[in-house]
Amino acid sequence: MAQITLDNLAHSYLRDPKADDDFALKQLDHVWKDGEAYALLGASGCGKSTLLNIISGLLVPSRGRVLFDDRDVTRQDTVQRNIAQVFQFPVVYDTMTVGDNLAFPLRNRGMDPAFIATQVQKIARMIGMEDVLHRKARGLTADAKQKISLGRGMVREDVNAILFDEPLTVIDPHMKWELRTQLKALHNEFGHTMIYVTHDQTEALTFADKVVVMHDGRVVQLGTPEELFETPEHTFVGYFIGSPGMNLIEAEVSGSTARCAGHEVPLGGAYKTLQGRVQIGIRPEFVTLAEGGDGLPVTIRRVEDVGRHQILRAEFAGTPVTAILPESMPVPAGADRLRFDPDRINVYVDDWRVTPLHPVADLRKEAV
């Protein structure tokens, strides 16, 4: 296993990049700790696969270095880095049996035959292919071939890291959850450094110790699933994580109050007067429905029953706002206000979260 350090890293597919927009991967300085499981999460085209290919050695970055522990591997190939990589679409040897495909990385390194047999049986059991070990890979479904690719990536115990590039795209939906669980179990058992690229937040949040969210070629946040949900550091994280995503409303913020289209919203922290494009963000889970009194006046557009809860779709001053309501909660005929939990409101300037000067609770204690 290895700690992976990205030092002043950037990449452009142009020969002579000049402007920031010329870079598919903007400057990165990050440390991926030895033995942790990471997910690289973001929309298509955000730079996830570019970054993964730089870490794996398939791509040399335009700028910066890649370090495995303290060793500079920037210009070393995949074999020299001693990593395993599983791609989006299956890569198998059709003329080999399933068992020989799984055994190939171990035989290629001269491992003991008894160890190889044990490992192949173990991985075959994990991916549900014990009964077809002696069958040729030719003619198998894409789903089955991808399971072979996954198994071949996991069969070695001596790798510095295992990299997965959207590996479950062609896997049957019923099998995805089981394979994610098995990958997690493998990580817990052997402690490999794992990096898993996906655009699916469920895959990312259920697999990883920490999630790296990318947007427009940048890492906008690295954190635990809880941190991404509670305190998104960028509005994209708030939008991309959660279903539905975070509500964002234009505001003027001063002290512990936000003014939204002339209406005051109490905040859980005190802020200096902010300049730029200011927004407040709150998850639908922390929005409640009320009739009259305090809160933002809204027009309710519809209520969607999704089984475990209801999603209320409303509009405030031309801005869509959503709230998650209990499944059995009736919506009062006169309901026309939405209230926000002040302690759950985040404040953003030009899309980046601003840390409050003080929590309001601290100010109340000082007053007492």
From TrEMBL:
It holds the Pfam family OB_MalK. GO terms for cellular component: ATP-binding cassette (ABC) transporter complex, substrate-binding subunit-containing. Residues 4-241 form the ABC transporter domain. CDD domains: ABC_Carb_Solutes_like. The keyword DNA-binding does not apply. The keyword Transport applies. SUPFAM superfamilies: MOP-like (SSF50331), P-loop containing nucleoside triphosphate hydrolases (SSF52540). PROSITE patterns: ABC_TRANSPORTER_2. Keywords: ATP-binding, Cell membrane, Membrane, Nucleotide-binding, Transport. GO terms for molecular function: ABC-type ferric iron transporter activity; ATP binding; ATP hydrolysis activity. InterPro entries: AAA+_ATPase, ABC_transporter-like_ATP-bd, ABC_transpr_FbpC, ABC_transpr_MalK/UgpC-like, Mo/tungstate-bd_C_term_dom, NA-bd_OB-fold, OB_MalK-like, P-loop_NTPase. Belongs to the ABC transporter superfamily. This is ABC transporter ATP-binding protein. It comes from Histidinibacterium lentulum.
